[in-house]
Amino acid sequence: MNPLIKKDRNGFLDGYNSITTEGEHDLDTMIDFGIHKMRAGSDHYETHNKESVWLLMSGNAEVEFCGIKKSIKRDSLFDEAPIAIHVCGDSAVRIEAKTDCEWAISRTSNDKQFEPMFFNQENLTPEFRGKGLVQDACLRNVRLIFDKTNRPESNLVIGEVINLAGRWSSYPPHHHEQPEIYHYRFTEPQGYGHGELGEDVYKVKHFDTIKITGNIDHSQCSAPGYGMYYLWVVRHIEGNPYTGFEFTEDHKWTLDKSQQGWVPKDFEGI
């Protein structure tokens, strides 16, 4: 029942690589999540019975979904805004890879029908959280793609975080009842960070995924020199949708800009 799912450091195989499955026996997040790799010149067509989010991690592709056609390209997870397709169950999706492509796919059961939506920098706004708090030690870029405010019919919430090298994110530690997954990438393949789940700490590396269940406190940090990216996906619970989180009481004081924390006297003025 280890919540950390470690993957081969060489990356994923061509085709779909399953990481979590809705309804699985241990630590069920109620989310199908995996990485789909396509070679340049290949095509993929599907009509899946679950609500699905296709998030482009890298590559250049032509996509067609529900009669909508787009040419899309993403070279950097760290420096470029998310590009994602969100469709309800039984929607047709076709992808033609112009270059090698990598997609993160999130799915879950949802009987509701809703209009498809395409997300990119034109309808997404970065949020720089942590500025001015505890000496900017938890400054990060939070890229919310959608939640209940703009996709009320969805059973998912999805976004990305760019964690600056040597700093923290998801901080102060917070918790929520709804299950969540984090999927990690680093600016260098040997990069790493640490993910907290309650009193347990896990060393996370390139391509790893953590499952967060049971209303447990969680936060992250990246090793100095290594930028950390993580895709986060939350699953709404029936009758109890995700609308936000609660901070751990002991550390809420760090949200006060007038309290910057301890600075040793030898470092004053540096």
Essential attributes:
Jelly Rolls, mainly beta, 21 strands, single chain, nine-stranded antiparallel sheet, 270 residues, seven-stranded antiparallel sheet
**Overall pLDDT confidence:** 96
Percentage of residues in strands = over 45%
Question: How many helices?
Answer: 0
Tell me the radius of gyration.
19 Å
For this structure, what is the CATH homologous superfamily?
Answer: Jelly Rolls
H/E order of the elements?
EEEEEEEEEEEEEEEEEEEEE
**Major beta sheet, specifics?**
9 strands, antiparallel
Mass-distribution shape: globular
CATH class: Mainly Beta
What fold name goes in the CATH topology slot?
Jelly Rolls
Structural class: mainly beta
What is the number of E strands?
21
Low confidence ranges: none
> Could you say what the CATH architecture is?
Sandwich
C-alpha termini separation: 46 Å
Please, how many domains? 1
- Helical residues, percent: under 10%
Explain the overall architecture:
This protein is mostly beta strands and 270 residues long. The protein has one domain (4-255): Sandwich (Jelly Rolls), CATH 2.60.120. Helices cover 0% and strands 48% of the residues. It is built from no helices and 21 strands. The chain has strands at 4-5, 15-20, 32-38, 43-48, 51-65, 68-74, 84-87, 91-97, 101-108, 117-119, 127-129, 140-146, 156-163, 168-175, 180-186, 192-197, 200-205, 209-212, 218-222, 228-235, 246-247. Strands 2, 3, 4, 5, 6, 7, 8, 9 and 10 form a nine-stranded antiparallel beta sheet that branches. Strands 1-18-15-20-13-12-11 form a seven-stranded antiparallel beta sheet, with no helix packed on it. A five-stranded antiparallel beta sheet has the order 17-16-19-14-21, with no helix packed on it. It is globular and about 60 Å long.
